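Design review, sub-item: ligand-bound model
Attendees: FS, YL, KQ
YL presented the inputs for the flavin-adenine dinucleotide complex:
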Amino acid sequence: RTNLEKVKGMGDAVFQMDLESALRYSLKREVGGTKEISGEKLKALRKYLQVLLGYFPFNQNGKNLLQEILTYANSEETIQGATIGKLVKEAEKVEKQVFSTPQKWLGCQGSSPQYRGYPCGLWTMFHYLTVNVAEYSGLNPRLALEAMHGYIKNFFGCSDCSQHFQDMAKRREIDKVATFDDSILWLWMAHNEVNQRLSGDPSEDPSFPKIQFPSEMACPTCRLQDDWLHTEVLKHLKHMYNNQNIRYLGAN
Ligand code: FAD
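KQ shared the predicted structure:
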């Protein structure tokens, strides 16, 4: 069986390879491609890096890299994106010490190269972060959502997507989210709204049609007729995106 078939047979699985590839693309291409970073952009970057440092599923070498990047981002009021890109590229040269996987897509692999990939990886990473930040009490329940919002606003290369996301954040009152569970559900609902809008769009991979997530098959208890049962959806998301359930398939 091909990788694609194998991965499709695994249901709602989350792969380390997609998380690491999204992180690398984000820091090398989007942050790395931004010439000067200051003001609001720099604030957003610092917040994003702090959340990654705290909760991205990395080994000690990976954490050291993020710490080095954050220290640089904190060191001046105007920083160069290229310096961050360079730090990541240097880390990549030390094979398997920082990144445990090749920079490829696994759960986010499209049926052909124009589909899926980075945007899929980015959604996956932010769902992962909302779930895993929530494992720790006493923090700001919007920590992961604020990091995502700031990142998408200031760095995400798809400007239409970014605008849509900002409009949705306002309309769906992201600033009123009051608990960790609600932040997980907020992102789930927001993502479903995007799925709905893009269903049938030319950008949709015919092998991965946009659905209202999760599918009936992946979570038979999540719906009662046409209504979502939020406690069941939450259970499904917490299980799927839990740190313990990240798959290392294809890591070597
Ligand atoms: P994706 O939608 O990328 O989903 C990735 C994975 O997340 C899925 O395979 C599934 O396992 C899981 N998932 C799906 N839905 C949910 C959910 N509700 N809750 C939890 N997990 C879920 N493209 C546009 O053309 N226009 C836009 O306006 C646009 N806005 C975007 C905004 C953001 C913030 C991002 C990150 C991307 C945006 N995109 C937009 C890209 C688009 O949403 C998809 O990422 C892209 O089309 C690839 O789709 P995909 O089939 O790989 O699945």
